[in-house]
UniProtKB/TrEMBL annotation:
This is Phosphotransferase. Residues 36-243 form the Aminoglycoside phosphotransferase domain. Gene3D superfamilies: 3.90.1200.10. Pfam families: APH. It comes from the Bacteria.
């Protein structure tokens, strides 16, 4: 891929040359939906992953923060890639390359044992700290209303109904823990039956149930036995019914609106399906 490095800024290319002399691109690992470039490279007989953000990118800084502050429970046992180099100002980081196959849409995605491992890893991650936030629920409501204020293809009637619902919601204090923020099979690698985790640009303090939302909306529905295996690995069910409903509505709206913004029609349709199902649960 002779042109892959050309997507990086001059500063980013200079840093890669300094950190990894003679680096050669082996694969483009990006999804093509956002302006972050993700490359598998080799240098000095080793393999690395280079992540470089574009002009308006904020995800690389979040990922650097995650590596520096939260990934210890996983990197200590080789279940997440260790940070090798970083420059937040240049929007650039380099990590170890973890071998393995993405679990997404492979036979591994139907194996309960993979989900039990995912539950165990997530429990260790969540256990690092916990804080009470009196403003979290209100801030999350404001965030989802902001998505409704942006361009989207949610029908006006549905958007009005969601707004009215949110206005009636309570805003109790929330317990926040370190969360991955995109916890599902697209960010899981399996190698020899062992699960590892990648992609940390959404790591933040949130309610623990946040990391169940995407699994509940997709994999748990598709693959029998995976929900029970995940909860067995996690050790308990972190979902409180009323807060769980509010969380899922926010997730559905942001999914549909974000996917529309980046042009991912399949993921947008998934968001609209979630909205319809949730409103059917709450017919008022």
């Amino acid at each position: 891929m002779p042109d892959a490095f050309q997507r990086l800024s001059h500063r980013q290319r200079s840093l890669v040359a300094e950190w990894l002399p003679g680096a050669v691109v082996e694969a483009d690992l990006g999804w093509g939906l956002v302006e972050t470039t993700v490359l598998a490279v080799s240098a000095r007989g080793e393999r690395f992953v280079v992540k470089a953000g574009g002009p308006s990118d904020r995800s690389v800084a979040r990922e650097i923060d995650a590596h520096r502050n939260w990934l210890g429970p996983w990197t200590a046992i080789g279940r997440a890639p260790a940070l090798v180099h970083h420059d937040a100002g240049a929007k650039l980081l380099v990590t170890e390359y973890l071998p393995g196959t993405l679990v997404l849409d492979t036979p591994h995605a139907a194996q309960p044992g993979i989900y039990r491992q995912a539950g165990e890893l997530l429990a260790a991650f969540h256990a690092q700290t916990a804080v009470v936030d009196d403003r979290h629920e209100q801030q999350e409501n404001e965030r989802v209303l902001a998505w409704l204020d942006r361009p989207h293809r949610i029908s006006p009637t549905t958007a009005h109904r969601i707004r009215a619902m949110i206005e009636r919601w309570p805003t109790p204090p929330a317990v926040l823990v370190p969360t991955h923020g995109d916890w599902h099979t697209r960010n899981w690698l399996v190698d020899g039956g062992t699960l590892s985790i990648i992609d940390f640009d959404r790591v933040a303090l949130r309610p623990a149930a946040t990391d169940v939302a995407r699994l509940a909306g997709n994999e748990f529905r598709r693959y029998p036995g995976t929900e029970g295996a995940f909860l067995a690995g996690y050790g308990r069910d972190p979902r409180e019914p009323e807060a769980w409903f509010r969380l899922r509505v926010r997730e559905a709206v942001s999914t549909a609106a974000w996917a529309y913004r980046v042009g991912d029609e399949a993921y947008e349709a998934h968001g609209h399906r979630m909205i319809a199902e949730l409103l059917a649960e709450h017919p008022a």
